[in-house]
Amino acid sequence: MSENKDPREYWAANVRLILISLVIWAVVSFGFGIVLRPLLAGISVGGTDLGFWFAQQGSILVFLVLIFFYAWRMNRLDREYGVDEE
């Protein structure tokens, strides 16, 4: 870790990134797939309603996107705080 960077700031940024990712995934999987499903029933995607699509496939796709986003953002954060592996 570089001399001018506080390790607590690094971990705070890391935990903040994790919490944001988890909130997005929860909103998509639980919110769109279960809670908001009746509101999304009128919108058709691929022959089924949007709420069902989010419950079956949408939350998985969002989870995959979040994995790649987290890895990309953590690599940037590691370089910023001087704890990268390179």
How would you describe what is shown here?
The model has no long low-confidence stretch (mean pLDDT 88). This protein has a two-stranded antiparallel ribbon with strand order 1-2. A hairpin with a 2-residue loop joins strand 1 (44-45) and strand 2. The protein contains 3 helices and 2 strands, in the order H-H-E-E-H. It has one domain. With 86 residues, it is mainly α. The radius of gyration is 18 Å and the shape is elongated.
Largest sheet: 2 strands, antiparallel
Strand order of the largest sheet: 1-2
Structural class: mainly alpha
- The whole-angstrom Rg is 18 Å
Low-confidence stretches: none
> What is the N-to-C order of secondary-structure elements (H for helix, E for strand)?
HHEEH
What is the count of structural domains? 1
- Proportion of strand residues: under 5%
Considering DSSP H and I runs of 4 or more, what fraction of the residues is helical? over 70%
Alpha-carbon distance between the two ends: 13 Å
Report the total helices.
3
What general form does the structure show?
elongated
Total E-strand runs: 2
Overall mean pLDDT: 88
Question: What's the layout of helices and strands?
Answer:
Layout (H helix, E strand, L loop, with lengths): L6 H29 L1 H4 L3 E2 L2 E2 H32 L5
Antiparallel strand pairs: 1-2
